[in-house]
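We modelled each protein-ligand pair independently. The example shown here corresponds to the flavin-adenine dinucleotide entry; the chain sequence is given first, followed by the ligand as SMILES.
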Amino acid sequence: MTTSTGALADRLRHLLGPDRLLEGDLARSLYSHDGSIVGGACGLVALPETTDEVAACMRLAHEAGVDVIPRGSGTGLTGGAVPLDGGLVMSLARMREMGDVDVANSCVWVQPGVLNLDVSTAVAHLGLHYAPDPSSQQACSIGGNVGTNAGGPHCLAYGVTVQHVLGVEMVRPDGEVVVLGGVAPDPPGYDLRGLVVGAEGTVGIVTRVLLRLTPLPPDVRTMLLDFLSVTEASAVVQAIIAAGVIPAALEMMDRNMTMAVEEFVHAGLPTDAAALLLVEVDGTAAEVDTATAVVERVARTHGVRTVRVAQDEDERALLWKARKTAFGAVARVKPSYYLHDCVVPRTRLVEVMAAIGEITAREGVMCLNVFHAGDGNLHPIIALDRSDPDETERAMRAGDQIVRACVALGGTLSGEHGIGVEKRDYMPLVFDHDDLAAQACVRRAFDPDGRMNPDKILPTGTRCGEVGLADTQVPEGTWI
Ligand SMILES: Cc1cc2nc3c(=O)[nH]c(=O)nc-3n(C[C@H](O)[C@H](O)[C@H](O)COP(=O)(O)OP(=O)(O)OC[C@H]3O[C@@H](n4cnc5c(N)ncnc54)[C@H](O)[C@@H]3O)c2cc1C
């Protein structure tokens, strides 16, 4: 612990009490990781419970000149909540209060530690839900969703987090509390609320979020389509939307993933299929009937083998359980996994799936695909055993080539997980030096001392006003 961190610890212990400042080796080890394979080094962990406590902690960290790393549930997949070099982890997990629902305006203020699924559960009796539904929704927090601008299966039709956050209360690096956005639509001036969503904790700590609530659809139908070729399944994704139907969700699973999931969930998935599409349509009963007919017609012209329509809520829930537990099912194959969530235009799905197949075969790694196909948001999960350095090396190489293939096909680095550390040094693939320097200026306007979640998003050495950055490399030794 550095001198400044030691002095800060004394003051934080006095502020929060010894139970809410974690300093032991076990805690520091746990908080040095998230859901990714990035590992770091944690200094202190504070567990504030109110906005005032967050602000007081931030003032103390500011005075001590110590870095601050905001953290929700730690399910992030890019190392965003991982402290790389000591500092103070601010865990918002204890801030779990929800305000009263503003039914007239269909919105509610919640604290950042509230879990995503808990919002929809709490407002269901009002006929409402919170639409963005990451597959991790039982565990991930609203603060983390705001940090990453999270997506989910139903974001195809409903939009991602930024479309459902009307306002935020945020504590700035010096401890000042600001409110950005609000109930009134289209507030004047720059959209700073929009900037905070997806900023991965680099501009401040979000302490309350005003969420837009969406009416529950009157009718829903869920279908499972199975194909003997990944190419045909990929082509159907674009064809359904081209036929004028935007499903509420349009997810794909390849054979490797289907086999792992079926062993785990026993949902009756056809394990001999090359690819499955999980398609959900919603709306009025008439709209659902029409959309179902279109989906079935398009699928049949692309060689679908079977169309299974969920007959009741239990069957629908089972199909969604199969989809949403897919990442966990990888544990049946290998103890760990490595993935990127690059995006390609939907029209390039056929090509990118072929490229992923070639890359992973060449590197001799096992890839399980499960992804938000309608958004072109890929999740090629490379199963690996991290105790095998050769396999880990091949997985990293395959991941690198997949990122580059996606960008070459007109795609980009992340659809929902954010940049964090994992994709930070790929940013020059999609932004030139001047763009990166301009982004550094925006960040500096919020955080002049560079203490908020440093080393995330922008490649090492990116400076405000600086042009002509040297080419950057994925750092050695950050990965474990
Ligand atoms: C099995 C599994 C499935 C997943 N499926 C999806 C999916 O479908 N869609 C998707 O988008 N993601 C998915 N994820 C990734 C992850 O769950 C999301 O990125 C989620 O938004 C992270 O939330 P969290 O609370 O765990 O945040 P953390 O991991 O704790 O933090 C994420 C980022 O947000 C910042 N942050 C956290 N809280 C705050 C705050 N209060 N103020 C400011 N910054 C903050 C952190 O600094 C960090 O940069 C999945 C992960 C797993 C393990």
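DSSP finds 16 helices and 17 strands in the chain.
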